[in-house]
Amino acid sequence: MVFDHLISYGISQGYTIWHAHGERKGEASYHAIGAQNNNEQINEGSSGMTTMLHDVFSMFDPEIVEGTGPEIRVEVGEAGVQYENRQDSNERVNKFYNILKDADEPLYEGCTKHTKFSAIVRLWNMKCLGGLSNSIFIELLEFVNELLPPGASLPKNTYEAKKYMNELGLGYEKILVCPNSCMLFWKDNENLETCLVCGASKWKQKESMDESSKKGKRSPAKILRWFPLKSRLQRLFMSSKTSSQMKWHAIGRTNDGVLRHPAHGLAWKTFDSQHDEFASDPRNVRLGLSADGFNPFGNMSISYST
């Protein structure tokens, strides 16, 4: 949801200096960095994309991007910052510079509205919001590539586009599931072939299974797509636009005796009194379980939301 909102509406052009994370007044802005590599028209059109990129890879100092700094920042936190030499850049550093290059260079020579990065993000956003199938999306990519002049490079299929978008850290993990939903083939059970509860195979069973087909690639009977929560919570603190909102319950809410926020409620206050260490740091995140149209086992006549 956060990613789709950023793509659809962009990020506010106003920028607040992030003192708590080591940012200093007078540092080169992200827009100024882009202007060194492109004309102003491109920079205006893709500034939201560049800002989003720096929020995703927020450990990189603008001075480092410009090449004027001696070190590469690899970890940022309110408790402190760790550094490593430029020569010891890891895979994440390489990903950042590769995508930053695509975000600064025009899609093709003379293009003033889009970069390779912004074009791929816009196309992928169309696929997600429009629910385009892989086959239709491939046809769209092929048609767009035909319209572009020589030298322009966009993904040729869904796999390439998805691989590019995964560099932003927006991926997920596939976990095989028992076809009867008895168990997950995960962690210690990842290499099991059959369910420990019902004995069903985790692979799709074909009507005719000969020796040659057994040697080929097998298809899972059921897949669970898990979106890791920890990295997504960390990303909310990495962005300068959402980090303050994550602590609003402690530093921004109004205390006038009116029930305006869950923090004013008895359950919140009781939890704080029972867990002093957790409550002492406003960055600790409280999670609430919600269900939209929940109907356990279909036993209820109507569904409800909690």
Please explain how this structure is put together:
By secondary structure, the chain is mainly alpha-helical. The chain folds into three domains: 2-166, no CATH class; 173-226, no CATH class; 247-306, no CATH class. 41% of the residues lie in helices and 8% in strands. The protein has 14 helices and five strands. The strands form two sheets. It has a three-stranded antiparallel β-sheet with strand order 4-3-5, with no helix packed on it. Strand 3 and strand 4 (184-185) form a beta hairpin. Helix 2 (30-37) crosses helix 3 (40-56). It is globular. Residues 26-45 and 63-89 have low confidence and may be disordered. This is Transposase-associated domain-containing protein. It comes from Juglans regia (English walnut).
Keywords:
globular, 306 residues, three-stranded antiparallel sheet, two-stranded antiparallel ribbon, single chain, 5 strands, mainly alpha, 41% helix
Shape: globular
Element order: H for helix, E for strand: HHHHEEHHHHEEHEHHHHH
| Uncertain residue segments | 26-45, 63-89
How far apart are the termini?
A: 19 Å
Tally of helical segments: 14
Cα Rg? 24 Å
**Averaged pLDDT:** 75
Strand order of the largest sheet: 4-3-5
How many separate domains make up the residues?
Answer: 3
Biggest sheet details: 3 strands, antiparallel
Structural class: mainly alpha
